[in-house]
Amino acid sequence: MCVGRVCRLLIPFSTTQAHASVSGAQKVKYTPDQEWDYVLENPYDPIDVSLSLPHYRAHNQPTAYRMGMLVAAHSKPVKAKVCRQPSQRSHFYLHVQAHSSDVTVWLPSDFNGRVSCTTRPAFSAGFVNRVMQNTRLCLGIPTDESSMNEDELVVCTGGKITLRMWDVGKGAVEREGKEMVRRMFGCGMRAPETTIDWDCLLDD
Fold first, then answer.
1. How would you class 41 by CB atoms within 10 Å of its CB: exposed for 0-12, middle for 13-18, buried for 19 or more?
2. Which of 21, 75, 145, 163 is deepest in the core (most CB within 10 A)?
3. 129 or 7, which is more confident
């Protein structure tokens, strides 16, 4: 179970608690007798999963508890969507570990907590508009344990990292065109240390 962890550069692959499916919707369940509530380890295939957090608190589940999820790969692309319902306040800790995979993570629009990445991430317009304001970004490996009353994402990879937004209200991934318009016309936040290239709107 997730009691707050420090990111390790290398997590050895094992089959003791590994889920077989590398795609589609995956239900995350409270698993008190295991280190993680959900584990997906696959060094061979691309990963594309939607991680559905429970909409209720399980029997005997502590009030201050984060659902712990581990997704581990080697070099194949990793895509992971963290999905929860609007009334759901189940905090989570997601650790994505890979050697050189390109990693894309969709965080819920009501995310509130810390994001740590080993390489500088790119941000979608939806993430900047809806998630960035409640996110503490850290470049590198975290050396401390964050609060159990907040969400946390840790991505350790030598590949590219992209952060996108899962729209909790609509129960779907962000609509990129709509979010881009919101960002261009000042309805959302700017990405850290980035500016909008207005020249792309000019006709030749």
1. buried
2. 163
3. 129
